[in-house]
UniProtKB/TrEMBL annotation:
Residues 10-164 form the YprB ribonuclease H-like domain. Pfam families: RNase_H_2 (PF13482). InterPro entries: RNaseH-like_sf, YprB_RNase_H-like_dom. This is Ribonuclease H-like domain-containing protein.
Length: 168
């Protein structure tokens, strides 16, 4: 039986009228992934309800398939634009718009296309797993690096979305 990869923190970047607010969902001591996922999905549902109440629309963007696939594991799912089936995956749009010999991963496209810069000099999935393990052991530096990395990832997704819009 294979090892189950522990899910890392998640966060949402909500942008309205040019102001982007990042909200992380993390508890390094928690072993209950469902509680954190539920908090994130409930927050997203509240953002959608608030937008609708003010006559605004909501679009949820992500990069590649893991986010909606993992979200679907935690019913009940929010309705409308907050439902994972309504989220917009930027990866197929990038693949259709960008010819890249280096690949279409978020780090490649965000850096070399959109000009996004991560705060950490060597960000990546393997490093984030190492930081997560150290944060669970109480390392505040690792915890900060992991939260910054996650925030930079969602900001990179926004940068790619804006870059694609300019390329239209």
């Amino acid at each position: 039986m294979g090892r189950r990869r522990r899910r890392l923190p998640v966060g949402l970047l909500v942008t309205e009228e040019g102001v982007a607010t990042y909200t992380p969902f993390v508890d390094f001591a928690a072993t209950d992934e469902e509680r954190l996922a539920r908090a994130c999905l409930d927050h997203l549902a509240a953002v959608a309800a608030d937008a609708a109440a003010r006559g605004r629309s909501l679009l949820v963007f992500h990069y590649a398939s893991p986010e909606p696939r993992h979200a679907r594991r935690f019913p009940p799912l929010p309705d409308g634009p907050a439902h994972p089936d309504a989220w917009i995956d930027l990866l197929p749009l990038v693949r259709a718009a960008v010819d890249s010999r280096a690949g279409h991963g978020l780090k490649i496209i965000a850096r070399h296309g959109a000009g996004h810069v991560w705060r950490d000099t060597d960000p990546g999935g393997l490093q984030s797993q190492t930081w997560h393990a150290a944060a669970r052991e109480g390392d505040p530096v690792a915890a900060r690096r992991l939260l910054d990395y996650n925030e930079d990832d969602v900001r990179a997704t926004r940068a790619v979305r804006e870059w694609l819009r300019v390329r239209e």
